[in-house]
Write a structure and sequence with these properties.
Elements: H1 18-26, H2 29-44, H3 51-76, H4 89-114, H5 118-133, H6 136-139, H7 144-164, H8 169-174, H9 176-198, H10 202-244
Helix pairs in contact: 2-3, 2-7, 2-10, 3-4, 3-5, 3-7, 5-7, 7-9, 9-10
Length: about 250
């Protein structure tokens, strides 16, 4: 597939210069948004999330996976270069190493300061970034379930770990939700790309596209709802602690 053939994807902007549209398309923003959403979900189940840590981890994942991993995928694919000659190989490596340097530097700082266990997740994510996107080990890790692990389960656990510096049985169990959502996304996405590449089964392709839209936009929308609810509950708890409890009126106390 040449680079022009992907400019009509539903997640590619219809405005702006061609290279801008290609760059936005290469980031696969709806799917990157799902990954970032899982980071937020993991943070929120910790109970009382520190939103500075949430924002930092969202930034780390956006830069490392949203940009770095997708640029790596563009040059690492053995069969098809998804976005053609958007960047030269040298430019691509500069972007990859810059993104990883920034993300791992910032992540290591916060890990050492708050959650050393995050280092383990960072090492595993780094392994999958190269093993998956460059199809190392004869493509052994370029599979749907490894994608679901690195793109769904691990970001969720990273969000939880940065808040708590631990992994609990409940967090492991709940991480199966983003794992399954990511597996669904990559499974449907592969079917969608194959149909579109072969220009066949147009109705089926449309249905796959609709499912991908519902899955990604639904996940991102749900994240905003979770954040809103969490914010309301936090404000209510603060009001309770500051004003009601000192007066002996703990109406909102759990």
């Amino acid at each position: 597939m040449n680079d022009d053939s992907r400019l009509n994807e539903w997640f590619v902007p219809k405005f702006g210069p061609r290279r801008f549209r290609m760059f936005c398309g290469m980031l696969f923003l709806p799917y990157t948004g799902m990954c970032i959403s899982f980071v937020v979900w993991g943070s929120l189940i910790s109970g009382s999330p520190d939103y500075e840590k949430v924002a930092i981890l969202v930034l780390i994942y956006f830069v490392a996976l949203g940009i770095g991993a997708h640029v790596a995928d563009n040059i690492g694919s053995k069969k098809i270069k998804p976005w053609g000659d958007l960047f030269t190989k040298k430019q691509s490596w500069i972007i990859i190493l810059t993104c990883l340097g920034f993300s791992y530097g910032l992540g290591l700082y916060y890990a050492l300061l708050y959650a050393p266990m995050l280092v383990i997740i960072g090492i595993i994510e780094g392994f999958f970034l190269f093993a998956y996107n460059f199809e190392l080990f004869r493509g052994m890790f370029h599979k749907n379930y490894w994608f679901a692990l690195s793109w769904g389960m691990l970001p969720f656990l990273a969000g939880f770990v940065l808040q708590t510096n631990t992994i609990t049985s409940i967090s492991l169990f709940l991480s199966l939700i983003p794992f399954m959502l990511s597996y669904m996304e990559i499974r449907i996405s592969r079917l969608y790309k194959n149909n579109k590449r072969n220009n066949s089964k147009t109705m089926t392709t449309y249905q796959y596209e609709l499912l991908l839209k519902l899955l990604s936009i639904g996940t991102i929308s749900l994240t905003f709802i979770f954040l809103l609810v969490s914010s309301i509950l936090a404000q209510k708890a603060t009001f309770n602690d500051l004003f009601l409890l000192p007066l002996g009126l703990g109406f909102f106390k759990n």
